[in-house]
From TrEMBL:
Isomerase is among the record's keywords: no
Name of this protein: Acylneuraminate cytidylyltransferase
Organism: Kribbella albertanoniae
Recorded superkingdom: Bacteria
GO molecular function list: nucleotidyltransferase activity
GO (cellular component) term, any one: cytosol
Assigned keywords, A-Z: Nucleotidyltransferase, Transferase
Amino acid sequence: MKIGIVTQVRVTSSRLPAKVLLTAGGQSFLEHHLDRLGQTGLPVVVATTTNYHDDVILEVAKHAGVPVYRGSEDDVLSRFAGAAREHELDGLVRVTSDCPLIDPAIISAAVDRWRSEKDLDLYISNCLERTYPRGMDYEVFSAKRLYDAEAHATLPADREHVTPYLHQNRSGEIRLLNLPWAGGGASYRLCLDTPDDWKLLDALFEEHDATSLNCAELVEILDTHPELATLNAHIEQKKLGE
């Protein structure tokens, strides 16, 4: 069974345009993100748009040795399905490119669990209930369920956010499994969506060598340096459909 990581990327983000191309620690945030995904040993696919603004994404991905699939800017569900078909994936890990510090070991453990269950109707995530910092989020599901969602999901939020049809079990056929973490830090933001998120990530890369740190080590730094955590503690996560 071929399982691959598909990460969605575009430069026309509303709150911080071209955020994944900003740099810290000598690399763009997208490069950090792809480096970490590559450490899982799984195939990685960048799913970007046909918008000419995203042409630059191809160059970053090419330099990283990661293939690119281009699809609809708004119908991200169809973009993921297209990437899965083109790369003949049986299972997918969905992540987003605004997570430059995502922990590859966490993804690998989730994939191992999904494989062991041998259930194509199983959806695994670590954010059905928030126990990890934002920026460590993943979802694992079968191509079979993705294609079913592509065929039957009709709400605009379903098409834009890829997986609501799955994790809300709209088909009535999905088995949901949340993999929690007891390491703390659920209130922390290690994702990149606003200028204040950028400030925190820049400090972690430039002052604390975040390139080499896992999730537990990052949480420990923020626990030890609350002045860092306060840099973006006020940011409200965008709601589904916003």
